[in-house]
Amino acid sequence: MGIACTFERAEDGMPEIVVGAGRIRLVQGDIVQAKTDAIVNAANASLAGGGGVDGAIHRAAGPELYELTRPFGGCATGSAVITGAGRIPLPTRFIVHAVGPRYSTARDAECAALLRSAHEVSLRLCEEKAVESVAFPAISTGVYGFPIARAAPIALQAAMEHLKAGERSVKRVVFVLFTPADLQVFSEALASLGQG
Ligand code: APR
């Protein structure tokens, strides 16, 4: 795949990849606890809140998060908007509301492109706010039904492409996976991209 990178293990044994001046790492847990400058929400096109990651982030950020997203009037699938983080404590200062596609096998290529662009736009918005660290959930792999083994390399590759360009404010991209099984899928995808 042609992206120069080094596969390492962080002090806690978690897989990590070094790309340019940046790092991509994987952890298992709740994204609300990520303690990164920005956290990415798996939102829907109306930005109206929901369950899963969206519900957890809105509960932690408080009702003011709806006030912050309302002026946007929604967000296209494959895109994202960025707001303040409401009541989520520092160092988290921003929430990126990314809208991944609802997966359908019949539209696999289109869904893959939309998932990729949701990550790309999220990372660009982080650059605009001089964010150094950002945490992503496995966008679209819950309610939206994107098979996680298909989604993982798309998400990881978007992050690698972003970091390899250099001169980026984003230096650390963390994928926060909710279950051990999801972490395993992302670990395998990261290892195989690292060999590429
Ligand atoms: N932290 C990290 N990951 C989480 C958390 C959490 N607190 N809660 C759920 N997850 C995981 C799920 O296990 C899944 O792998 O996040 C992934 C994405 O799942 P969803 O939150 O369902 O997101 P998505 O598939 O993109 O669907 C978006 O769900 O709740 C609605 O408003 C949201 O309509 C939108 C849709």
TrEMBL record:
Annotated Pfam families: Macro
CDD domains: Macro_OAADPr_deacetylase
Residues in Macro domain copies: 11-194
InterPro entries, per the entry: Macro_dom, Macro_dom-like
SUPFAM superfamilies xrefs: Macro domain-like (SSF52949)
Protein name as catalogued: Macro domain-containing protein
